[in-house]
Amino acid sequence: MTGDLCGQSVGVVGAGVGGLAAAAYLARDGADVTVYEKLSQVGGVAGRIEDSGFQFDTGPSWYLMPDIFERFFRAFGHEPEDFYDLTRLDPNYRVFWTDGDRADVPADPTAAAELFESYEGGAGEALLAYLSEAERAYDIGLNRFVVPGRSRFRDYLSLDVLRSAHGLRLLGTMDDHVTDYFEHPKLRQLVEYTLVFLGGSPYNTPALYTLMSHVDYGLGVYYPDGGMAAVVDAFEAVATEQGAEIRTETPVSRLDPGEREVTLSHSDGTATHDRVVCNAPPAHAERELFPEDVVDRPRSQWEDATLAPSAFMLYLGVEGNVDPLEHHTLVLPTDWDDHFERIFEVPDWPETPAYYVNVPSKTDPTVAPEGCETVVVLVPVAPGLPDDEDTVAEFRAQILDDIAATAGVDLRDRIRVEHRATVSDFERLFNKQQGTALGVAHTLRQTGPLRTGHRVPGADRCYYVGGDVNPGIGVPMCLLSGEHVTDAVREDVADRGVLDALR
Questions:
Q1: Cα–Cα distance measured from residue 80 to residue 399, given in angstroms and rounded to the nearest whole number
Q2: CA pair distance 235, 41, nearest whole angstrom
Q3: Where is the Amine oxidase domain (predicted)?
Q4: Which residues contact 473 (CB under 8 A, 6 or more apart)?
Q5: What is the span of the domain harbouring residue 202?
Q6: Given 187, 219, 251, which residue is the final one in a domain?
């Protein structure tokens, strides 16, 4: 495929994971690629903070679906280990419940089955059956739908898709499906927590995403040395190796599609490109970047979208050890319905939050000074919440109090470095609608061909890439999105060539 885009100039707006992946694929195929990023570093939400010897991943911190990372690097003659080493974690994560209970969830499915059996008779066998179903869902969802890039309804009109029709019974809600296997509420939580990575809840996410349990147990949970920041560095290295130019601190203010080119206005002037791939959220692009009435979609459509949660983030450099926190730790109320209601139904700051604590220095001592730990706390919260200074300070105190009470480790008097991010930060820094941290949620009506596609409707020569579009949220999905948008560009360039030849 190399050379299919020779002579094409492509601008990429935004150097998030999707933008970097698209830049790499487009440049590999011969396009002259320029990436415009408004921030001083690449990665978008997957950024880094370095302060006084502490290093924090600002966004994603779970390395899942290693096969998708391998697919990306192999497309350019590399392997992940050319850039970073991986450590498989065991346990996958530790859970503290607010009733005083605690469990380590092992990497080995057989050992996990023993854990499940200790909570509910027959649950061990049920878990193994559930994981078998999850593996089938992964094969259907990833290998037959997501990886091939079926983003349009016409892409589903094939024998391969029809052979997969038995998987469509997984279109009910996740919670309904999980209840068929487990009665104990804690066990249901253990197989549903991954929905946080998809920006949904057990009550609005299709059961097809049971595949995430295969991601956990079948494929494994890993840590890349140097954190996810090292992985983003690798994406950037591949893109530049292919010939893409990346211009940071260059925000884009306008996109004007024309018949034969797209004019892009940025902080240093203007540029023209044959095509533009936009890694900015579509809601922002269609409200702020494209001229009114260019995009063939009502702007009000974005007001009706179900948004994934925002996040309250604490990046803490802590003196001393933080036992018994693990590399990945979940803190869960025994009944988390109220928290999900306060995200999706009646937006409000949660009173009994479910949240995640990441301590990468447990595995990688290079991310913290000697005798210290790097701690990141993530609490999913509703997008659009008011986050004035007093509210944030009060919620910070609540969370630190809760960590001390539930996990048994008091961080409050040992914090040497602290940074925060909350709703308004995601909106200001990343142009996220209402400050959602993840984008558009994976509800049934926002999945597969019902999710925003790669081609911008009505804006010829313009495309979208990233977590808001097909296939969806998460670093692996954004890598695939970069591959798929390149396929769309290549297809359109070929079609244009045929039309020009017929004129």
A1: 36
A2: 13
A3: 18-489
A4: 197, 198, 199, 308, 438, 439, 442, 467
A5: 108-219
A6: 219
